[in-house]
Design brief:
By secondary structure, this protein is an alpha/beta fold. It is built from 15 helices and 11 strands. Helix 13 packs parallel to helix 15. It is globular and about 65 Å long.
């Protein structure tokens, strides 16, 4: 089955599958005290700088939950966009595990701005109110848009003046960097991000993420939050070893560029039909658009995808690192049949 439903549906890159197989040949120490995990930590420090302290976990929801616990207490508030993954798609796990109030702010493009945050930054020191402590942003956002480096710096500057933290969910960080033509370090720690959920599952990895702290005071308690959150893998080498080929020779970037290029091809195809209207600026590998309901129904008979807003027949298509020209051509032929026959 080939689909444009999600980059979670794609396969595992052969180099990453090989890395998992290679660590399976003998015994080694568990819980991260193995040479493969140490090599992965060193590789991540090469990419993000010596201040980076990575903690490997099983999945994205776990990464976000562990990360947000590390920078908040239960009387704090976490601010995010109304479309944020932690607010919409994680079954309340970050709120439950941190005990925090989550304040969701409406946005048109999934991105937060200092102007949107300022009205919520009040009542500091007043015990009757949850205290604003962290802002969560997604890079790429849930609407397929990308924060620029300057936009992230503006958020970080605002928050740091108020003793707050900026947490980035980097599930599609690679696709953002491919679009911005920048390094992962430039758009994270150099831009003022305090804590990162770094994932590769959507970009060629099998599973697992790294919660990367950029401050010693955050790193101090992360091992305990990870263990309490059931995110400490005993056979950690199978998670951590994937990051070695993922980061070597910029495999992460090659995969992301391929997905973004395929999305650009899809944009050209979609916009050739006056019946189709993009609803978000296409910047990475997620495309949002409306099309006639009957056309969407016919397309769904051939390809699996998700409706974003079925009331207006808005759908989302996502390309992956392994999306092929054959996949794109097949969709183009299907649309041609739908609209011209």
């Amino acid at each position: 089955m080939r689909s444009f439903a999600s980059d979670n549906n794609s396969g595992v890159h052969p180099l990453i599958m090989d890395a998992i197989a290679k660590v399976n040949h003998d015994h080694t120490v568990g819980y991260g005290d193995d040479p493969y995990t140490q090599q992965s930590v060193a590789k991540l420090k090469e990419v993000f700088g010596e201040k980076a302290e990575p903690f490997f976990v099983f999945n994205g929801t776990g990464a976000n939950s562990v990360a947000l616990q590390a920078i908040t207490r239960s009387f704090h508030a976490i601010l995010c966009a109304q479309t944020a993954h932690i607010y919409v798609d994680e079954c309340g796990a970050p709120a439950r595990m941190s005990g925090c109030t989550i304040i969701a702010i409406p946005t048109t493009d999934g991105k937060l701005t200092p102007e949107q945050l300022r009205p919520h930054l009040h009542n500091f020191g007043v015990c009757h109110h949850a205290q604003p402590k962290a802002v969560y942003i997604s890079q790429v956002t849930e609407l397929g848009t990308v924060y620029t480096i300057d936009e992230i710096k503006a958020l970080a500057t605002l928050l740091h003046h108020r003793d707050m933290y900026l947490h980035m969910d980097g599930a599609r960080l690679a696709n953002a960097c491919a679009y911005l033509n920048c390094s992962m370090k430039e758009v994270t720690i150099d831009a003022g991000v305090d804590l990162l959920s770094f994932g590769g599952t959507k970009n060629g990895m099998m599973m697992g993420e790294a919660v990367i702290s950029f401050h010693p005071e955050i790193s101090k308690n992360l091992p305990y939050f990870r263990k309490q959150s059931a995110q400490l893998a005993s056979k950690m080498r199978y998670l951590s070893a994937q990051f070695i080929p993922y980061l070597e020779n910029d495999l992460w970037l090659a995969n992301a560029r391929s997905a973004n290029r395929k999305a650009s091809r899809l944009v050209d195809i979609l916009t050739s039909y006056p019946e189709i209207r993009l609803t978000q600026k296409p910047e990475a590998n997620q495309l949002f658009f409306t099309m006639p309901a009957e056309a969407a129904k016919k397309l769904s008979e051939k390809y699996f995808f998700y409706y974003w807003n079925e009331a207006v027949s808005e759908v989302r298509l996502v390309t992956s690192w392994d999306t092929t020209d054959h996949d794109i051509n097949g969709l183009a032929e299907t649309l041609e049949i739908i609209f011209h026959h």
